[in-house]
Write a structure and sequence with these properties.
Elements (H helix, E strand, L loop, with lengths): L1 H28 L14 H10 L6 H27 L36 H36 L4 H15 L2 H15 L16 H38 L2 H8 L4 H39 L4 H10 L3 H29 L7
Helix pairs in contact: 1-11, 4-5, 4-7, 4-9, 5-7, 6-7, 6-9, 7-9, 9-10, 9-11, 10-11
């Protein structure tokens, strides 16, 4: 299994490079100009110098190679330097100087970090600043959805066509059909405007240091988490129900019951484990998918996360930011596929990748 995992990770490198190339070419063809927001009073020669400073004057293949160097070499070097020089957790590592910044006092070759055209700040610094807000909302939504969807799918399959199963089918159809840009404003109107229970805007500057501040944090997280969790709960629960129904009809279930095993052991040990083999793909691929769903949710609830940053970068034609965030989502999808394949072997001992 370890050999297979390493082989898949190595083979994912050319896949990611091809995805990066496709993303870059699509952004090159996309309409929009980063100079569009420059005032009309700026002379054309000044705009041209600004364009060259952003690297837009170089050929497309040079821009792509430069971005690859920045993403895979320069930014990891900056991160390693930060770990070894500032973090107390990595004091045992020797101090490094992998990144050579450009400046007036630097002579010879130097490296430039990947800068946002919109803010002129390092893109990865902006991503790291916004990532915790997204992880709080998305991570909690995924945990809530998983804890709700699996029991609902199991019980709906075991009590097929019961009132609980019919109600679960109706609710999950709503979760499938209603998009986040509708459920978000709907929850704001009901719970913020009409009842006044929860704030409509997510305060990213809020600091939790006591019980009262924790209550405020929980209140402002409830509605964004509900919007994201509803969609992923509907998906996982339906797949869980279908997989359980398929396994409950198998011969090994009748054999286990004939041997005198309790119904709890038959369903929760034998049937559940075999049913999770099909569901694990949905669970793994839902991780990057829910990041995509958070883009709309963050915009609706004003969550200052990476989804909101992506929307702002798209409107500003900020290609370094858009390409970096899109490529990060692509990395999540590739890693989720590898995770799903590895989990097949963990759940089913018959599956081997030798």
């Amino acid at each position: 299994m370890l050999t297979y995992t390493i082989r898949r990770l190595v083979l994912s490198v050319p896949t990611l490079l091809f995805i990066a190339l496709v993303i870059f070419m699509l952004l090159q063809l996309a309409p929009g100009d980063p100079m569009a927001q420059v005032p009309l009073t700026v002379p054309p020669e000044v705009k041209q110098k600004m364009r060259e400073a952003l690297g837009l004057g170089a050929p497309a293949h040079i821009q792509f190679i430069k971005w690859l160097k920045q993403f895979f070499i320069i930014e990891p070097a900056v991160f390693i330097d930060w770990l070894t020089n500032t973090s107390s957790w990595f004091r045992w590592l020797p101090n490094t100087d992998l990144y050579t910044p450009c400046g007036p006092a630097v002579e010879g070759d130097c490296d430039l970090r990947m800068l946002s055209w919109q803010t002129r700040s390092p893109v990865m610094d902006l991503v790291i600043q916004r990532l915790p807000q997204t992880l709080w909302v998305v991570g909690l939504a995924y945990v809530v959805a998983f804890l709700i969807a699996i029991p609902i799918g199991i019980y709906s399959a075991y009590k097929q066509y019961s009132a609980f199963d019919q109600a679960g089918t109706f609710i999950t159809m709503i979760g499938f059909s209603v998009p986040p840009f509708f459920t978000g404003p709907l929850l704001i109107v009901i719970f913020s405007v009409y009842y006044g229970w929860f704030p409509s805007i997510y305060d990213t500057t809020h600091v939790v240091n006591d019980w009262d501040s924790l209550v405020v944090q929980i209140k402002q997280m409830i509605m964004p988490v509900m919007v994201l969790a509803l969609q992923i709960t509907a998906q996982i629960s339906r797949f869980m129900r279908a997989s359980m129904l398929d396994n409950l009809k198998q011969d090994y279930v009748r054999t286990a019951r004939a041997k005198g095993l309790s119904e709890f052991a038959v369903v929760m040990v034998h049937v559940l484990r075999n049913s999770m083999i099909a569901v694990v793909t949905v669970i793994a691929l839902a991780i990057p998918g829910i990041f995509g769903g958070s883009i709309i949710t963050e915009k609706v609830f004003k969550v200052n996360g990476i989804g909101d940053a992506l929307i702002g970068a798209l409107f500003a034609s900020d290609m370094p930011m858009v390409m970096t965030l899109t490529f990060i989502f692509a990395i999540l999808i590739v890693l989720a596929n590898i995770f799903a394949d590895v989990m097949y072997g963990v759940l089913d001992p018959r599956i081997r990748y030798d």
